[in-house]
Input
Amino acid sequence: MTGNAKGKKILYGGDYNPEQWPEDTWEGDLKLLKKAHINILTLNVFSWGLLQPKEDEYDFTMLDKIMALVKKYDFKVFMATSTGAHPAWMPKKYPDTVRAESNGLRRKYGRRHSLCPNSSNYRKFSAALAGELAKRYAGYDNIVAWHVNNEYTGMCFCENCEKAFRIWLKDRYQTIENVNKAWNANFWSHTYHEFDEIVVPGALSEAHMRWGKMKSFFQGLSLDYSRFMSDSFLECFLAEKEAIRKYSKDVPVTTNFQGIIKQLDMHKWAKHLDVVGWDNYPGYKEEPAAVGFRHEIVYGLQDGRPFALMEQSPGVNNWDEYCRLKRPGVMRLWSYQALAHGSDTVMFFQMKRSVGSCEKFHGAVIDHCGRDDTRVFREVADLGDELENRLKGEILGARTRSDVAIIFDWENWWAAEYSAGPSSHIDYMAETVRFYKGLFKGNISVDVIGTDADFSKYKLIIAPMLYMNKNGFDEKLRNYIREGGNFVTSFFSGYVDENDNIITGGYPGKWRDFMGLWIEESDALPPEEKNFFTYKGKTYEAGFICDLLRLEGAESLAVYGRDFYKGVPVLARNRFGKGNTWHVGARADDDFYRDFLKDICMELEIRPISAAAPENLEVTVRENDNGRFIFLLNHDSNEICFESDMTGVDMLSGNQITAGKAMTIPGYGVVVLKQNR
Ligand code: GLA
Ligand code: ZN
Output
């Protein structure tokens, strides 16, 4: 998805909401946005109430006018379908179109992102609107993509969802006996005799809060409900996509993911998206590696096809606890971080700050003062100029080849975090980021993959906290390792099958043979309590969950330093077939992941992109026919200076960079070093 075929451009722009403004202000806005080098506008995200004032009446007057004007000013359009917020008449007449909360209470009209995904009325009306829009605007050649709905999110617990869930279950399990077996239903007398005895697992049923996290008393059911909800929203998306396709045959259709959204199995969704798009809103305290990891998840969804950064804030996020300003240079830095990880677009929410309601203090290109000399406007304009005139379209389509992959899986995410024990604070994403950060510090390029990816491309696969061993996964992994693959895993991995039932015989279940060990017990330590271990002469902290390993062929690399399990292995390595496996049995401090993964990479001849770049500099690489592009991102406010081991031209400054010579990157600075291939 790029600007246009000849003279391809990075798409630069974002949400513009003319429906919130008098018509006589539009032209002035567009002129200002031109000055900022904005070349694409996302239109029509939340206009359903205007577009369809009554059930049997559409009114496209406003949209026709703005479409004519943006064409006149030569903007591309990311055309939204407006179905993320209902028109007020709809829930009034069709209460089923809005969702019911976990406590069973049906919502009233209001807010947004409130749809019930199994309301046949909602599906009918949303698909009809998408079709009407496609019919009317398919002829506009400046529409580069369709943005369906907006940030699908949440869950519904209404009676329509309950009925649809029973059908979904019949399809998955055929008989009630199979459901009982899958859910280990004799626990607490949950034995079902008819499908219609099954109810949604909301707060009136299995859901409850424990230590601030949503948990379930009956996890097989809740896990399936998570799967079902993700599928239900996907069906809503597909209904709109199908309606668009009747009229708009080739223009990519997608939606904008609300970050790395836990409720939607993004791997499953990605198969149905023409391009993956996501919204990136790092909190002000967020670590660069955590954000880099999220970009990599998105990049991996379509096997390394470039993605679209569909939203980020040009300034503050108004929903933050403290709306801390992005420091000068940070918006630019984070925009390049997206490009560095595989985005082909840089897009914002929003072009202009609204005057009313809950987003009036959210960052925007045009502030309430309406001027083009604010700091934020200048930064947006400067970046637009740089993308257009320095980077040009050269990096478009460029990809990254990595020797290391980290597995990140949604069904595992759901199951691991529903689990009661070994700790209520299981956080799959955070645990995985620890490993990513270790590699990030070592400037090692990483792909993030799903469990069904092709493993043979990688020298090393890391699966932190992969609690769920889906059917056939252990066999796939075993073959990979036997043939010379290398595998690292951590505590709370390999425990259950895809229905969340324990694989008996000793943890990690079916992985025991290639891991060469089993785990007899796991101690969950509160944050103030720590154990320790010594690996290669250096002492590291061990905490959170501490596995007590029993080796059956694996070699111990480190043992615990205190408590009743002093001397028991915490870190082990096994040789299996032509490959190797490592088990990290406790959560260690950040330095451990860096040091340990560096050792493995050295042994496997996995080289860093730059061996000289210091660890607080983020380094990634993308390649295409135009060249090899090394992105160096300084996330620190202080300048970084080091002796370069890379030669090339910095596309942004035009400076020559030479290996063996000093290279300086200012605080929050970026270098895009181009090397010819
Ligand atoms: C989301 C939505 C936008 C806007 C922003 C504000 O990403 O898609 O409509 O509300 O949040 O941060
Ligand atoms: Zn519902």
Observations:
- The first helix runs from residue 26 to 35.
- The two ends are 24 Å apart (CA to CA).
